[in-house]
Amino acid sequence: IELLPSTDSDALAGPVRRVTKLGSITEYVIVVSSGEEFSVQQQERTGTRKFALGEVVSLTWSSADSRLLNA
Fold first, then answer.
1. I need a surface site. Which of 14, 22, 43, 63 has the fewest CB within 10 A?
2. Contact 2, 61 (CB under 8 A)
């Protein structure tokens, strides 16, 4: 999952609720409108965008990385 500044109203988006620094990894917790929480870990590299608490971000991923799970 990749985080981007929220610009698309059709994207899965929500505010950053928690930011945790784990060495060279930053973990973001985002709560979407349905109330579900997503945890995204991002490795810090030169030019990596950092997001602030409360900032609304979009969650994106490649459809090739998606899997349908039957309940």
1. 63
2. yes
Backbone angles phi, psi at 63, to 5 degrees: -65, -25
15-63 pLDDT, tens per residue? Answer: 999 999 999 999 999 999 899 999 999 998 888 899 999 999 999 888 8
> Looking at 1-71, which runs of residues are DSSP E strands?
2-5, 12-22, 25-31, 37-43, 56-60
> Is 3 in contact with 17 (CB distance < 8 Å)?
no
6 or 54, which is more confident?
Answer: 54
The closest alpha carbon to 27, from 57, 59, 6, 50, belongs to 50
Is 41 within 8 Å of 1 (Cβ atoms)?
Answer: no
